[in-house]
Amino acid sequence: MSVTIRTGRTIAALPRRPLFKALTRGWRGKCPACGEGRLFSAYLKVNDTCPACGEELFHHRADDAPPYITILLVGHLLVGLMLHLEMVWSIPPMVYLLTLVPLAVVLPLLLLPPIKGAIVGLQWANYMHGFDPDNKDD
């Protein structure tokens, strides 16, 4: 099965890439193409190429999507938790300060790399931002 994409100048029929596999491999910090090589060389620095299969990864444009998604998830989680706790019990503000503020710092730091990996996997699976072999102008 193939997927038809419109690039800047042409319409190309390319083989369909498995979206769910690419997302889960990226979430785990692995190359979306092979699932073996490490996606990141540092905390959020994506390798230029996969050490295992050689797939070029420098085309990704994750930019603001991972922080936005992370803030959205963590914000909803913490605000929902805080509202629930406040409706069930009367909690002193110092307890929020000692529990929810550290969670608000740690959770985004833990979620950023997997979310960025999933975004890179999404871009790879959909031939976005230079991952299209016929359009290397990106």
Topology (elements, then pairings):
Blueprint: E1 2-6, E2 11-15, H1 19-27, H2 65-88, H3 93-125
Antiparallel strand pairs: 1-2
Helix pairs in contact: 1-3, 2-3
Query: What proportion strand?
Result: 5-15%
> Residue ranges: pLDDT <50 for 5 or more in a row?
none
Order of H and E elements: EEHHH
The biggest sheet amounts to:
2 strands, antiparallel
Shape: elongated
Number of strands: 2
Number of domains: 1
Decide which structural class fits the backbone: mainly alpha
| Rg of Cα set | 19 Å
Q: Helix share of residues?
A: 40-55%
Explain what you see.
With 138 residues, the chain is mainly α. It has one domain (19-125). The chain is 48% helix and 7% strand. It contains 3 helices and 2 strands. A two-stranded antiparallel ribbon has the order 1-2. Helix 2 packs antiparallel against helix 3. The longest helix has 33 residues, at 93-125.
Keywords:
elongated, 138 residues, 3 helices, mainly alpha, 7% strand
Summary, kept brief:
Helix content is 48%, strand content 7%. The chain has 138 residues and is mainly α.
